[in-house]
Amino acid sequence: QNYMVKEKRNTNRKVNLTISRSPINFFAMSIPVSSPPRHRPLSIIVAAALFPSLLAPPTVLARPIVRNIKSTHEFDALLKKHSTETGFPVVADFYSDGCGPCRMIAPIFRQLAEQNKGKAVYVKVDMNRQHELAQRYQVRSMPTFVFLVGGKVVNQFSGAGEGQLRQFSHSAIAQAEEENVVLTEESLIAYYKEKDPEKDEYSVREIIQKCAGLIKNNKTDKCYGRPAFNLGRKLRKKYKVMPDFDKRFTPENADANTEEQKEKSRSKSKSDEPNLHLATMEQLEEELQKRLDEILEAENEAAVDDDAEFQHSWTPSDFPERVVIVGGGPAGLSAAIYAARAGLVPLVIAPPIGGQLQGKGVDVENFPGIHMDTGPGIVAKMREQAVEFGALFEADMVVKVDASSKPIKVFTEGGTKVETHTVIVASGADSKWLGIPGEYDMRGGGVSSCATCDGAAFFGKDVIVVGGGDTAMEDALVLARTSQSVSVVHRRDSFRASSILAQRVITHKKITVLWNTTVNEILGEDAPLVEGIETSDAPPRKIVTGAVLNDIVTGKETILPVQAVFVAIGHMPHTSFLEGVVDFQEGHAGYVKTKAESTWTSVEGIFASGDVSDPIYRQAVTSAGSGAAAALDAERYLSEYGLGNEAAEFEAELLREMMEDLPSREGEYNAYEEESNRGKGMKESMAADKEQTNDTAEERRMESNKAGTDEDHIEL
Question: Catalytic pick from 453, 470, 475, 633?
Fold first, then answer.
């Protein structure tokens, strides 16, 4: 029922059906094959419309593209498998559900996993559950990405940087392909016979043995991996050409190894199984872990990839969208709810972040109707409500809007072009930074703008929060739960935050307020190497060790030893994609200018809501209210300009043409016509019966009158 058929005719009487998504109900029509050519397209029973599953390919429950790690042992087993069986690099995303940047980069991470399927393995590690892994790789901020080749760390960075993620992924894949080589003794002997005949076979074997000795835990005498590749480069430098390598891992070999292991497991005899009654404690633990691994692997094989919920529910149409909403925070979701309830089927284009509200780890106390719920919880409920009423979602970033002609064109980072009659801009704001030495270099090493995301990484540590607004107060209260001490650095002698939050911070025993103070520099050092963790020759990361503070009253500088600096000095509207399209407010850089008492911008069809147009209040509840207002303004705009449901109008016109094209069926049996005639005959029969009844009643009345007259005459 969700398809329509566009009829296309050509001279050789072939029938082409274009199936596209649109809400319409079809009925099956059967027309004789001998119908005239112009009716022949209609002689097809529109089974595709009634049974779309006939055209759809069978659904296959595939393994997740991105694997979620459930334990340290599972992660270690994964590294071992791909180090010894496939050679694929492993890319690990250390994240948290309450981390906004984590949600922003998640679609890109998944997209890379799909693009590099068969070249690399992508996994996600929940920081709140896998503390051991987070400590092992010194994860101090989220998201943090760790790239491993052969079980060794080759790169690592923190932050939602798509460019870095793509670059390091490609670099890890290239390195894995370089190391996927084996230099055999036969190949090296043949190489020397051609390039240096004086070299005897004994000397060649010594070279192979030295190469094999450079490989850690090498139980064979083979020369492979990075030592083999480095040996080849040295030989190329000397003889201008590299020797011939064999591939260490191939897809066929990997599949063969897997099948061989399964076959061995199936064919294992009863006598090979351990006697649990006589086993030692170590043997029991080993057997238990083995069976747990088998269960876990079976679960991973049977797992269904459901990470894309709410992310790609939109399908491109031949008609412009009526409403496109840019942003997935309170303003965008509120607009989506109102527009969806009005039957406009809005399309929400935004990363699955949920705006700034997504990063609120403390309970939200000032959102009406919500009691004791966090920011992520409120966002989740709003999204579910919008979906329930028919809103569509596309997980992407808008990078450009073209309003030079109608309909308006919206371009996304993923290369999608969406045409729409109206655009509601609710893209929110990005965090501001201090712009001081050490800040950029140590992002991910202790410098962060999201206490909810990264606070857990500094359990029992000393930290700083810079700022004096509500965001700074909330961050300080979140960090006070886990950190040893929290110092709030503010450049004034009073907070701008609400009085209840400010009072909680001032009276908290673990929080110290440093008034009239600024941060001049963030100090750091190279992160220490962790014993047992193999790393490449990449430069070490820097981590925070302290901050240089300046008292603006006395001018005195002091160094405060801390392990993290959280910046909470406000936000900048995310409206760069509207530069040159709409007018901005004077005196408030980046804020979209709207007409008085409305959400209308300087361009017809574009509306602004939330933090992109509000430099004063900037609250979740005011953003939600302006989002609702923007949806109402968009609905009125569509009504005033007569921009309705073009798809439905086209379908109605198509059905009318189809009914007009129906040929005459005189002389042919038609079940529908028979039913119609039967009804017509019943009506005619009922009318005749009624007329006959009326005639009978009239005769009886006349006879009765006549009889009465005769009786009167006799009596007289």
Answer: 453
